[in-house]
Amino acid sequence: FPSDAITFLNSGHCSTIFQDVFEKYHRERQRIPSWANTWVCLFIDEFSYIYNWIVEGLVPTSFMQFWKAVLQAGYFSAFIVGQDFMQRFIDFFPNELQAMGPRRISYLESRYAEDLIREPMIRVLNKNPYQGEAIQEIIRLTGGSPWYIQIVCDRVVQYMNRERLLAIRDADISEILRKELLSGSDPLTRDKFDNLLSSGDNSADIFPVEHVLAVLDAIALNSRTGDCAESSISIEGVKVPAVLEDLVKRGVLTRASERYRINVELFKEWLIHNH
Questions:
Q1: Residue 199 burial (10 A CB sphere; 0-12, 13-18, 19+)
Q2: In degrees to the nearest 10, what's the CA dihedral of 121, 126, 131, 133?
Q3: Cα 174 to the chain's mean position, in Å?
Q4: Helix (H, G, I), strand (E, B) or coil at 224
Q5: What distance in Å separates the CA atoms of residue 80 and residue 97, rounded to the nearest whole number?
Q6: Can you give the pLDDT at residue 1?
Q7: What is the pLDDT of residue 183?
Q8: Cβ-contact 266, 178 below 8 angstroms
Q9: Of 125 and 205, the one with more pLDDT
Q10: What gap in Å lies between CA 50 and CA 268, rounded to an integer?
Q11: Are the C-beta atoms of 238 and 215 separated by less than 8 Å?
């Protein structure tokens, strides 16, 4: 976080300057007929990093009072995107963030996942190359995650080009999984699963990634033929129930009757292969 920005935030002048700029803008736009009915929408990505900076003492807590004040003043509408630990941010500043309506963005519904898999190929080839259960197999592997769908589909394109295929079947997807994604010359590496291992929260009380990985590794190994029972997960020095609860909240795991499964099957297969 830039030191001059920290100085500015701590100075107390940012609120006054910000308000002056927007009040001047709203006065000026009323003088231009084509701008009179326009509205400012502010889109901010990675907003949850502000929480880390506040916890670390880099940004003053008064910034959140400033944020609430400018929202209440109606200078703009705000759409903010945060990482998995955004709820932690909301819980820490419930009053300052109460005006915002949170919505969790998770895995794609099946119909949208199918579109993401099929439509780019149709635009290029003018036809759907997926046959049989190939699309459903990709959805099963990825859990409907757009990130993993695109990783798998990129390997599908490479495989089709190399093998000179005009169509792709579910057996081909299994082949790509074994020989392209899990092994071969360019297998997936652990960093491709960082978003599942960590929420991005750097707070001191967050579970070490090694503990999370150990829990997920145990679930993968104990769910080869079905969901993993919680009683099968015993790791010395790891707060297993707390880690499981966090993983369920973040959508990494699904829990049913104290049994767990990893939502992204590709990650489960990677864990088993690299155990």
A1: buried
A2: 40
A3: 26
A4: coil
A5: 11
A6: 46
A7: 95
A8: no
A9: 125
A10: 32
A11: yes
